[in-house]
Amino acid sequence: MKNIVLAFCSLFLITTSTTAKTAVYKEEAQVITCTDITLYGTLLVPADVKSSSLAIIIAGSGPTDRNGNNPYMANDHLKKLAQAISKEGIASFRYDKRSIGESKSDKINETNLRFTDYVSDVKAIIEHFRKDKRFTKIILVGHSEGSTIGALASTAADAYVSIAGPGRKADDILKEQLKAYPAIYDDAVKIMDSLNKDYAVQKVPPTLMSVFRPSVQPYIKSWFKINPIDAVHALTIPILVLQGTSDLQVGVKDAELLAAANKNARLTMIPKMNHIFVEINGDEQANKDSYTNASLPIAPLLSNAIVQFIKTL
Known about the structure:
Blueprint: H1 2-8, E1 10-17, E2 25-33, E3 38-46, E4 52-58, H2 77-86, E5 91-95, H3 115-129, E6 135-143, H4 145-153, E7 159-163, H5 170-178, H6 182-196, H7 209-212, H8 217-224, H9 228-233, E8 239-244, H10 252-260, E9 265-270, H11 284-289, H12 300-311
Parallel strand pairs: 4-5, 4-6, 6-7, 7-8, 8-9
Antiparallel strand pairs: 1-2, 2-3, 3-5
């Protein structure tokens, strides 16, 4: 499928905002048309720079759009990251994954979605930008689940950055997270164990239907088969693993596992940074509240670490 997607992908460029005299980057809307899906994204290109590296930012799980927002919470963490690194002379491209945001399509049936589809999409994006003479190197920057997607697609990239990426298989992490919900834990584990054995589960409790509905189970099966450690271990390019110490969703342990998987990996911890890149100086509730506060800045150490890493390539 990968080769089919790459062979039939084409990119159409529309410049949307380049006129401000004080602008440090230009913003261009991108439409990537493939055989089965059209992806929409935003390219930021440093102003007055003839060539630069390009960071392709990959969003995390669920209905998260190119800016890092979803129907339940808006904080613009990916948009802020893209702007921060583009201000430092590095181009960035962020996009709505298939069936998300502007890339949502009635042509895509959830039952047919597989984890590798996301990987193929990223490789198609890389293939296009390889032909764009403005960009000297391509770096994949994956956040959360996007980290795993990025690791699998980075065989076609020049470098790889993981932010809050899982260092264990998805089912292991889900089981750990669900321990906080004893009322549904046993049922959830039974379903996950069945899916791991490649069995479909038709009778799903109402409380778990949003997560394990039958139509999404084929995707979950494909997701559970992926081991991030194996994906990172296979890479032969420079790797930067970034992890916030105040992350409630992905812990330091995962970052350490990822970094240990490859001799080319560099591990950097960002003090007090949470899962959406915000520095937290309060308690757990303050951490959770930040998820719906788009006015909060991202941690400067995060963008600085990425910029320094890319500029040394």
